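As noted in the main text, all predictions were made from sequence alone. Below is one such record, for Sugar ABC transporter permease.
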Amino acid sequence: MADTHTTRAAAPPRRGAPADPRRGARRRKRLLAVAFVLPALLLLGALVVYPVVFSVGRSLFDASGDRFVGAGNYAEIFRDPATLKAIRNSTIWVVVAPTLLTGLGLVLAVLTEKVRWATAFKLVLFLPMAVSFLAAGIIFRLAYEQDPDRGVLNAVVTEVHDVFEDPAAYPTARAREGQGLTGGAGGPYTTGTAYGPGEAAALGFVGIAPEDMPGGAADAAGEPPPAGELGGVVWLDFAPGGKGTPGEVDPGEKGLPGMTVEAVRDGKAVATATTAADGSFRFTGLDGDGYTYRLPAANFAAPYEGVSWLGPALVTPAIIGAYLWVWTGFAMVLIGAGLASIPRDALEAARMDGASEGQIFRRITVPLLAPVLTVVFVTLVINVMKVFDLVWIIAPGPVQEEADVLATRMWLVSFGGGNDQGLGSALAVLLLLLVVPAMIFNIRRFRRSGA
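Prediction:
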């Protein structure tokens, strides 16, 4: 039986037939896209991909780059005390700075909605973003100076301190040698001779500049105390022009008013007196003799010079404070933009139901702002992991190691004297591995929000 089905071979395309125009258009579009993307890809490869690949490879070799050490550099990271300190400081940065900035930004964004001059307020807070980290570091390095005459923060601190506690009157004074007073610089000073009623004690001091003398100081009193009383004189044992006899009250020599003097017997202070304008002091109501006089160290205490902001204990918090000054405006503006998109109906409904502003903030505003707060927080985490400028500029050389973070440690190990680019590359790879998860999280968050 003959097969009723016949197979017809597909006719080959004729030579010279016109090509599909749609295929040519698609090809041209692809070539155009490649032409536009290629420069960016080349830059990305040269500036990002190649350095990353090179750093990963370099981290597997020793300092000279000749000997393969595998994971030895990565193990060294966790054996080196200085690097462990940098990891600790980076952890403090990641935990403290983004949390404080996000909280401050949220509070300021909410508060600016309540004032009429919100735009000016936001502008002032955002202005530090226009200042480079280099300039900000120099500003805060000066602000944190220990000397109150240069550091504005310590100038304020010392002024407030002196309001509540009087400074010592004679911080530079020292006893005249060979005049019977024993004690080291800064006091206390004690007489080596015991005194009785009617006997004058002459306690001479030097080392006080004329401009440091109290304005009410009078000529020193040279007469002995009345009969039955103990006392003496405390004076500046230096006559104008260098004249006079050491140990004796000469004309023109001034008393030291406001000096505290203690009468000591059997090792215990039994009475206290304060010198008058002429430097004289008196003790009444004391029986017998055998008293020595002691001038407490409080008379000679060095002036309060404020807080050691850039000392080993406070250098990291101080630098974080400078970072907050720069980035608070950034957090406030981003959170303020999210706050503006919150439906006002929900807030008004809560107020109509009798909710307080605090309840509205905690139960409505913050939950609705959670996506924005998360993005701001993660962005700041990425930023603080890479912080370098402020730490490098603000921290003084002697405490640089106490303030080091991973970025500064990487620089020091590689180029700042360590000359170990193998270990430095390992630190760079570690820093990259710590930053990448936060970047991936932020990218996914942006994609979900744009979907």
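Confidence is low (pLDDT under 50) at residues 1-7. The first helix runs from residue 21 to 58. These features were considered when defining construct boundaries for the mutagenesis experiments described in Section 2.9.
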